[in-house]
Specification:
The complex is a heteropentamer of chains A (265), B (403), C (533), D (353) and E (231). In chain D, 68% of the residues lie in helices and 2% in strands. With 353 residues, chain D is mainly alpha-helical. The longest helix of chain D is centred in the first third of the chain and has 27 residues. In chain E, a hairpin with a 2-residue loop joins strand 9 and strand 10. Chain E starts with a strand and ends with a helix. Classes of the chains: A alpha/beta (265), B alpha/beta (403), C mainly alpha (533), D mainly alpha (353), E alpha/beta (231). The structure holds adenosine-5'-triphosphate (2 copies), leucine and magnesium ion (MG) (2 copies). The site of one magnesium ion has 4 residues of chain A, from helix 2. Chain D: Keywords: Cell membrane, Membrane, Transmembrane, Transmembrane helix.
């Protein structure tokens, strides 16, 4: 109780070996169906990694495992070298600095755009602090900055339920920014965005990399190409291929199960 | 408005107790109408003020207050459950109101402002056990009750009484159930086993209200007839029976101070009046109705006699007041605010009526404080001068509690 | 139980009407003359005398006394039977057994009998009926003799035994003989009797053995044998005790199931927090009452008629409620709680106004009464048995209906996403009305059954609403199988706890257990699985 | 606004008895009772309206607070009970209890009672909430479990062995802190205390819901999972809110008992708890003053209707419930907002539970 | 086939669609485009009757359906694939598909075989709960579900959102086939130009709730794209 009500000290991940996330031999099955199958994945600190793979390959499930939503049947997941994520629940993992944008945009519908960001700010999340908390000037600036970035400045007092699908996508990205996580998991950020909006997102994500580590799941190959350095292809719950975009695009198996014609262009 | 005498009626018309209490409301209305036909009281018409406390105990207190303070009624007829009475009690004592309570109850109470016209335990439970013991020859006893004060107290008294009469512990089985208990399979089966020991077994039931129907149905279905194991009930009267399929009940017993089947002119007239008033040939009368009748008649007589509706005056006049029972004989209001009444034991018939099979030779004086409970055996109540005390400790010679 | 006896006496009445008077008439006359003056205490002796007469009219008299049909004229003391034959009231003179005119101008007085007299008469009848030609009457007679073996002589029994073919009766009679033998002081006789009685489940046997066990005069061998016999009996009794409790549990479970099953549709599937569910049950019960009032001669069939009628009444009421209120609350499930609570108040008061606040009397048909005596310590009451069967039947037909008809699929689709379902051409209005009607209708059917178990009054619904919600939620909302399992679990648990803790604590323990259990399974016994979104 | 109205009532109390403005002590008493209900409704609205926890067992906390106060009042009777036993309450005497059971120890101290009023419902709510919210029981499952809880408590308190007076509960209180409960002044003071407590509670609740924690709570109502992924321990927020609300309910119960003069297990009955929900829904869920208005309006309607139309008032009340749901989806405050569009945050997505 | 004239729509206080006009011929393939939040989904919902029109009129197949119910539009033969898919999460794939059977439009009791031909994955997943499917699988299910209704017009709201490239191609092919083989009218909301170009014959561009430009697909030049589709 104490830890929940009062401030919780969150340890930083140990990234001395350059890796921020280790997933080893992870398997997840649902009613006998293997969504993840003995998967191994390592994410470097500051890296921008694209994750592609057929629908149902297990990308979202993988994010579920990292963020504590789904417990794997076997395998280990560790954040930095020392933090075993499997021992933490969703909120603890979030506090450890892993942020996530969901495939289906989920925002707090009854709150205003601004309040959505306010709640997401990186700060002590204990109830005691929350009861007495008032925004500092610095935080105010932060929020304004983010509102500007996501193009919702004009709508900041609107209730989030009034946003269109694409606007919710943006808002969710904004919430991610507000949380200043070390590791960002972004599930299909540009779904439902126009080409140029996608471009802006690409810029945003690239600018985040370096300081943060980013894992992006996307089916829009144009988008992936524009941001990707390393691409990992998932297939039937395990890694099928990993490498640069070009290497992947000419990978015959990947072409067959995923890219289709796109591989040819 | 000023020249009516107001009679408050405080019976639940909705909620769980409406089943029982609505009838009493109608009884009071009938009595009021009757009285008005005869010219009212002291030259004024009576006016009934009906409110609905909705089977909600705090609401009883609120409504009692409303009746006395807002409506300025001169007397209240009301209550069924003891808890409703307990809720109203402080209010009538504070505001010096007058309450007639018409239902049998567990005793252990006597208030200056309340007149108890229902039976005390010694006017129902004890005679019933006497009958079972002496006439039926019961040797083993099952005391079944709903888990609350009335059954608990009654059973405590009975247990003490039975033991005093040489019944051993192992021959007494006590079981309590929640209100509205509807699944009696286990208990009835246990009773059956308890009763198959070769000794004559009887059940004394203080099961309350709605739980009775499923209980008797289960008895019938498990094949326990009144001849094997008779059940005597204190809360099952004609009105309750009118909602039963009486086939499985025939021969089981009820103990009351009144039965509709008792053939007297007064009772016949009362029954006719009631049926006409309510407009239903099939409606029945029951003990609490008689208690209401007696209470009302006594009050009217006291008002008439003293020429006043003042609570103190009327209360004083009520003590010693004698009114003919509907079943013959005379009911007398004792100084302890309880009545002297005859006690009848009857067997239930298949038409829902109860045939008297035994009755006390004379009237029994209602005892506010049971002689069989250690806490109250020294207590007595007397609201006449010089004692003027609801609980007088005879041994210590002091008046405890309410004065 | 004494139905066959009665039937036979009707035959006798008719036969005897034209029969010439017997020579002993004087004696029977005396007995009849004594009746008006008899008290509860003197009556048994008078009847004992009557029993010794070889007069057919005695049997009639006994039967009539049992029924409480014997009256006398207060003035001239004429004793007569007042009874109904084919719905008509008739007056029959006791001596001549001829119909007579209704005595005018007086209120007849009753020859009162009480329980004691009645059981005395039954005992007397049993002795007479031991050689009755109807097997059931004979069996019953012999069984009632068990309770009082002293009232009959060994000779009569053994002569009866020689002629008897029926195995059950033989069993009872040998038991009686053995019980009589036990009373002998002769060791061999006792041992022989014990041999016969070993394993017998008649409570009378157990009582006899127990008293023998306490008897200090018997020999050690006998004592050892008694102990062994008793141990065997106790073991059997225990076993049947468990069986009985299990039956009680299942039967309670099936009542819960029946009460909850309608709710598992309106609440579980449709998501309407239907506080008026109890009142739908109540309407069903009142429908039974109305049917019985409308067809007083068809009580035996009343339930069969009431089931469809109650389904219609409650179902239509459900449709009405859905159309007039609930349909406007789409997407506001919590508001349905408020509205349906209002409706439930209105319905309760409506019933109070229409039918009065008193309980209504609903009769049980003959076939629902009594019990199926499997052995002397284990019997199964018919009403419970039928209810178990019926509730399972309702459950499975509903399951089948929802599976086979498109309604089942449509309801679930509408419940999950109304607009999308409509975009797929589902008539959501119709589906809502039909489903709510179906759920309510089934509640009505439950009401028919409950009318056989409990009060039919304005509060009937209130008594079941909480249990119903508990059952549905415990099982896992929207899962019919869950409702079944949860109802049965709660029933059985309750019944096994009850003997140990008493009913009040049992209920409390079950409730607390439920609260704790939900911590382990936050979505009930059978949760809806899948990705939470 | 409400506080204003109450002040008027108080001032009027000081008017001459025959004056038009005079408010009888009967009405003051009644109003005091309504305000206790209002406080209870406020407590429920906090968890239901703002956090989506539909508690069908808030009556239990109310009753526990009431019982704690009842125990104290019972002890205050001292030897003025019918049996004149200075230590034991009457119901214990006549059930042959030898001495006070352990849980009655300290009940004669007013401060202990204040502590119990807070602790009894608080601890129950904390234990219940901590278990349920940590194992993520939510929605109807939670609602029905709260109902089971109050139902079980009702059965338990009905039992005479529990030592709380069984079905009859506790009545016939004489005085509180030495002041006679029968006197009008004591009543008035109790009323004033109720007003103050309600005002204070309103203020605190308002602070909570408009704080950042309030936003988190609203977010939990609409998307609890998402809240977790942002890093909030939603369970502890819920436990906090639930416990706080239970304590408020307990205080309401404690204020209620001396004003109505009886506490018995009927207060635990599930129907009572449902009624609280009704008040809040009628008034307007998710607005604090709505809950208060709802409680007062419904209770007032009940008082009047049971007097005016004793046989038909259920039709009226039931009809009111139906009509309000159909015509005023936001409850009575919807009506007010409609008439006087005050600047107020609209909560559109209220259907989530 | 679809005629929209002077359509206005508002959510509470804020107006979303302004005097919108649109004409879609039977058997044509139309693509509606525009930035986030311009009102594309709102327009489609109005067409389907899920949102009431404030004023203006909608005619489908010469029937005025402005005030008609959702299901009556389905019965006319409008299939709808909503944005966000709206799969019945607790129903199995098979049940999802079967919802529209036994209704006025589709009285058959069994599923048409061709949907499995278009989307073979579904066949393998018939018994899985709709909510458990991955995004792309759900999208295929949503299209197939609309097809079971046997519509003569298909309205799709961003069907490619979150779909793997080869399935996007599959969907493109399916749509073209449906149009060609069955003469099905296709109305598509799409953000991605290549796909829009491949499927659409004509386009509508929306901005702030109004149609700002429309014409045949080849007329959609870079200027228009820049003006109305980029940020
Ligand atoms: N709770 C669950 N129960 C059963 N099956 C599940 C569950 N969650 C996921 N699956 C299955 O696991 C597989 C992987 O799903 P996942 O959502 O991770 O795919 P994905 O790679 O994110 O696909 P997409 O690109 O379409 O979003 C899918 O086949 C899906 O049906
Ligand atoms: N429920 C609502 N209440 C109020 N405003 C809403 C609501 N839903 C959508 N809006 C507003 O209506 C406008 C149009 O929304 P719509 O969903 O039609 O956009 P869209 O063109 O489909 O965008 P996208 O490409 O992001 O899906 C948006 O600005 C949005 O803010
Ligand atoms: C036995 C009951 C019908 C009445 C009784 N006075 C009670 O305590 O509630
Ligand atoms: Mg995915
Ligand atoms: Mg859209």
């Amino acid at each position: 109780m104490k830890s929940a009500l009062l401030t919780e000290k969150n340890p930083a991940p140990d990234t001395r070996h350059g890796m921020i996330l280790y997933m080893e031999n992870v398997s997840v099955s649902f009613d006998g169906f293997k969504a993840l199958n003995d998967l191994n994945l390592y994410i470097k600190k500051g890296e921008l990694r694209c994750l592609i793979g057929a629908n149902g390959a297990g990308k979202t499930t993988l994010m579920d495992v990292i963020t504590g939503k789904t417990r794997p049947d076997t395998g280990t997941v560790s954040y930095g070298q020392q933090i075993n994520l499997l021992q933490h629940n969703e909120e603890q993992i979030a506090r450890l600095g892993i942020g996530r944008k969901f495939q289906k945009p989920t925002v707090f519908e009854a709150l205003s755009v601004k309040e959505n960001l306010y709640l997401s700010l990186k700060m002590d999340k204990g109830i005691w602090t929350s009861l007495w908390h008032a925004l500092s000037a610095e935080q105010r600036d932060d929020i304004d900055q983010i509102l500007h970035t996501i193009g919702l400045l004009a709508m900041q007092h609107c209730q989030a339920s009034e946003l269109s699908h694409g606007q919710k996508q943006w808002l969710e990205i904004g919430m991610l920014l507000a949380a200043k996580p070390q590791l960002l998991l972004v599930d299909e950020p540009v779904a439902g965005m126009t080409v140029s909006e996608a471009e802006r997102t690409a810029e945003l994500l690239t600018s985040l990399a370096g300081e943060h580590s980013v894992v992006v799941v996307e089916h829009d190959m144009g988008f992936v190409r524009s941001i990707a350095r390393t691409v990992t292809v998932l297939h039937q719950g395990s890694v099928l291929a990993e490498g640069t975009m070009d290497a992947i695009q000419s990978h015959p198996e990947v072409k067959k199960v995923y890219l289709g014609e796109e591989g040819h262009d | 408005e000023e020249d009516t005498i107001k009679v408050g009626v405080l019976h639940s018309l909705t909620g769980t107790m409406a089943i029982s209490e609505t009838t009493l409301k109608d009884t009071v209305l009938m009595m009021v109408e009757e009285q008005n036909k005869q010219g009212g009281l002291l030259g004024k018409k009576l006016e009934a003020v009906v409110v609905d406390p909705a089977s909600n105990w705090p609401l009883f207190a609120e409504k009692a207050r409303e009746l006395i303070v807002q409506e300025k009624v001169d007397v209240i007829f009301g209550g069924w459950t003891s808890v409703s009475r307990k809720s109203v009690l402080p209010v009538v004592e504070e505001l010096n109101g007058l309450l007639f309570y018409p239902v049998q109850y567990e005793g252990e109470e006597s208030s200056k402002n309340v007149f108890y016209t229902g039976a005390a335990p010694n006017q129902q439970a004890i005679p019933a056990v006497d009958y079972l013991m002496n006439d039926i020859g019961a040797e083993r006893w099952v005391l079944l009750g709903t888990d609350y004060v009335y059954p608990r107290t009654t059973n405590k008294i009975l247990e003490a009484y039975l033991k005093a009469n040489g019944v051993s512990d192992e021959d007494i089985m006590i079981q309590y159930t929640p209100f509205g208990h509807s699944d009696w399979q286990n208990i009835v089966s246990d009773v059956k086993k308890f009763g198959s020991s070769g000794k004559k077994t009887a059940v004394v039931s203080t099961i309350n209200g709605d739980a009775n129907v499923p209980f008797y149905k289960e008895l019938g279905n498990q094949g326990i007839s009144a001849e094997d194991i008779p059940v005597v009930a204190f809360s099952v009267g004609e009105e309750e029976l009118s909602g039963f399929d009486t086939a499985p009940l025939v021969g089981h017993l009820a103990a009351w101070n009144y039965f509709q089947s008792i053939y007297t002119d007064a009772n016949n007239a009362f029954i006719d009046k009631w049926k006409a008033f309510i407009g239903d040939e099939n409606r029945v009368t029951n003990d609490p109705m008689e208690a209401t009748y007696i209470g009302f008649t006594m009050w009217a007589a006291a008002v008439e006699q003293t020429g006043s509706t003042d609570v103190n005056t009327v209360s004083d006049a009520l003590i010693g007041m004698a009114v003919p029972n509907l079943t013959g004989g005379i009911a007398v209001m004792n100084p302890n605010h309880h009545l002297s009444k005859p006690v009848f034991i009857g067997e239930i018939q298949d038409d829902g009526q109860v045939e008297v099979v035994w009755e006390t030779p004379g009237t029994v004086r209602g005892d506010a404080w049971s002689d069989f409970l250690p806490s109250s055996k020294n207590l007595m109540s007397d609201w006449t001068a010089p004692m003027l005390c609801g609980s007088y400790d005879v041994e210590a010679g002091t008046c405890t509690g309410s004065k | 139980m004494f139905k066959p006896v009665l039937a036979l006496f009707f035959v006798i009445i008719h036969l005897s009407i034209f029969q010439p008077a017997y020579a002993q008439d004087v004696v029977f006359d005396d007995i009849v003359k004594a009746l008006p003056k008899a008290s509860f205490r003197t009556l048994p002796a008078t009847l004992d005398k009557a029993a010794t007469l070889d007069d057919e009219r005695v049997a009639t008299l006994f039967a009539r006394l049992l029924e409480g049909d014997v009256y006398f004229h207060p003035k001239n003391q004429q004793v007569m039977y007042v009874t109904k034959i084919q719905g008509e009231r008739v007056w029959i003179d006791t001596l001549t057994e001829q119909n007579i005119a209704q005595p005018s101008g007086v209120r007849l007085r009753k020859v009162r009998v009480n329980n004691r007299v009645r059981s005395h008469i039954r005992q007397l009848l049993a002795q007479r009926n031991l050689s009755h030609r109807d097997v059931t009457v004979r069996l019953q007679a012999s069984q009632s003799l068990l309770a009082d073996v002293d009232s009959i002589s060994t000779k009569v029994i053994s002569s009866r035994l020689e002629q008897e073919k029926n195995a059950d009766i033989i069993d009872v009679l040998t038991t009686i003989t053995a019980l009589k033998q036990l009373q002998n002081d002769d060791e061999t006789a006792q041992l022989g009797a014990l041999e016969t009685l070993r394993g017998s489940l008649y409570p009378e046997v157990r009582v006899a053995l127990l008293s023998l066990q306490r008897n200090s005069e018997v020999t050690d061998t006998v004592k050892a044998n008694v102990d062994a016999a008793l141990a065997g009996i106790e073991a059997k009794r225990k076993w049947f005790g468990w069986a009985e409790t299990a039956f009680f549990g299942i039967s309670m479970g099936s009542v819960l199931l029946l009460a909850a099953i309608g709710l598992s549709i309106t609440f579980g599937v449709m998501g309407v927090i239907n506080m008026a569910h109890g009142e739908m049950i109540m309407l069903g019960a009142y429908t039974t009452y109305v049917i019985q009032q409308a067809f007083p001669n068809l009580i035996e069939y009343s339930l069969l008629m009431a089931v469809p009628a109650a389904f219609l009444v409650s179902g239509l009421m459900g449709v009405l409620i859905e159309r007039s209120v609930i349909q406007f609350l789409k997407g506001r499930p919590l508001e349905t709680l408020l509205a349906t609570f209002g409706i439930s108040l209105i319905l309760q008061q409506l019933v109070r106004t229409v039918f009065s606040p008193l309980n209504r009397q609903v009769a049980s048909p003959e076939w629902m009464s009594g019990s199926w005596q499997i052995n002397p310590v284990f019997s199964v009451t018919f009403n419970r048995l039928y209810i178990i069967i019926f509730s399972l039947a309702v459950f499975f037909s509903l399951l089948l209906f929802l599976k086979k008809s498109s309604l089942g699929l449509h309801v679930r689709a509408v419940a999950q996403n109304r607009d999308m379902a409509r975009a797929l051409s589902v008539k959501s209005n119709w589906v809502d009305a039909a489903t709510f009607g179906l759920g309510s209708g089934i509640a009505g059917v439950a009401g028919v059954v409950l009318s056989q178990l409990t009060n039919v009054g304005p509060n009937l619904g209130q008594a079941y609403i909480i249990d119903s919600f508990l059952v549905v939620v415990f099982g896992g909302v929207a899962n019919l199988w869950g409702t079944l399992v949860s109802a049965m679990t709660l029933g059985v648990l309750n019944k096994f706890l009850e003997p140990v803790t008493g009913p009040v604590l049992a209920t409390i323990i079950v409730l607390v257990g439920l609260v704790l259990f939900i911590q382990k399974r936050p979505m009930g016994l059978f949760p809806q699985k899948g990705r939470a979104e | 606004m409400l506080v204003m109205a109450v002040y008027v009532v108080l001032a009027n109390q000081l008017f001459s008895p025959e004056s038009f403005f005079y408010v009888s002590s009967y009405s003051v008493n009644l109003l005091g009772k309504y305000l206790c209900y209002a406080l209870l409704a406020l407590a429920l609205d906090l968890v239901w309206g703002y956090c989506g926890i539909l508690s069908l067992g808030h009556g239990a906390f109310f009753a526990l607070g009431g019982y704690a106060m009842g125990m104290y009042l019972m002890r205050q009777i001292g030897d003025r009970g019918v049996y004149g036993n200075p230590d034991l309450p009457d119901f214990m005497v006549f059930l042959n209890w030898e001495s006070l059971p352990w849980f009655w120890v300290g009940s004669d101290s007013f401060f202990w009672v204040i502590a119990m009023v807070i602790l009894a419902p608080g601890i129950l709510a904390y234990v219940f909430g901590a278990m349920a919210f940590r194992s993520r029981v939510s929605g109807v499952y939670l609602s029905i479990m709260t109902q089971a809880m109050t139902y079980a408590l009702m059965l338990a308190f009905f039992r005479n062995e529990m030592g709380f007076g069984g079905n009859n509960g506790m009545t016939d209180f004489k005085d509180i802190l030495g002041f006679s409960l029968q006197s009008d002044t004591t009543r008035l003071v109790l009323f004033i205390i109720t007003v103050c407590v309600l005002a204070a509670a309103y203020y605190v609740c308002d602070r909570i819901v408009s704080s950042k924690a309030g936003k988190v709570i609203t977010a939990i109502r609409d998307a609890e999972n998402r809240v977790r992924f942002v890093g909030y321990n939603s369970a502890s927020y819920k436990v906090f809110l639930f416990t706080f609300s239970a304590v408020l309910a307990g205080i309401a119960g404690a204020l209620y008992v001396p004003q109505v003069g009886i506490i018995n297990p009927g207060e635990f009955s599930p129907i009572n708890s449902i009624e609280i929900v009704i008040w809040v829904a009628i008034g307007g869920r998710g607005t604090l003053y709505g809950a208060i208005i709802g409680a007062i309006v419904v209770s007032f309607a009940k008082t009047r209707l049971t007097g005016i139309m004793p046989e038909a008032w259920l039709f009226a009340l039931g009809g009111l419930f139906v009509l309000v749901t159909l015509l005023l989806p936001k409850g009575l405050v919807g009506l007010i907002d409609h008439r006087f569009p005050v600047k107020r945050k609209v909560n559109k997505q209220e259907s989530a539970s | 086939m679809i005629n929209v004239s002077q359509l206005n729509q508002r959510y509470g206080g804020s107006q979303i669609l302004w005097d919108l006009n649109m004409d879609i011929a039977a058997g044509s393939r139309t693509c509606i485009m525009g930035r986030n939040g311009v009102g594309k989904t709102t327009l489609l919902k109005c067409l389907m009757g899920m949102l009431p029109a404030a004023s203006g009129s909608i005619t489908i197949n010469q029937q005025d359906v402005t005030r008609a119910s959702i299901e009556s539009r389905a019965n006319i033969g409008v299939g709808y694939v909503p944005q966000g898919r709206h799969i019945f999460g607790q129903l199995t794939v098979e049940e999802n598909l079967k919802v529209s059977l036994n209704c006025k439009r589709q009285t058959s009791r069994s599923l048409p075989e061709d949907i499995f031909e278009y989307f073979p994955v579904l066949k393998e997943m018939l018994q899985r709960r709709g909510g458990d499917l991955s995004g792309g699988q759900q999208q295929q299910l949503a299209i197939a579900r609309a097809l079971v209704l046997n519509p003569n017009m298909l309205i799709l709201d961003e069907p490619n959102e979150g779909i793997q490239p080869n399935i996007v191609q599959l969907i493109r092919d399916v749509l073209l086939r449906l149009n060609k083989e069955k003469g099905m009218t296709i109305v598509l909301v799409e953000q991605k130009l290549p796909f829009a170009r491949a499927v659409g014959e004509q386009f509508y561009l929306m901005e702030r709730g109004k149609v700002v430009s429309h014409g045949a697909m080849p007329e959609l030049n870079d200027d228009l794209v820049k003006q109305y589709l980029s940020v």
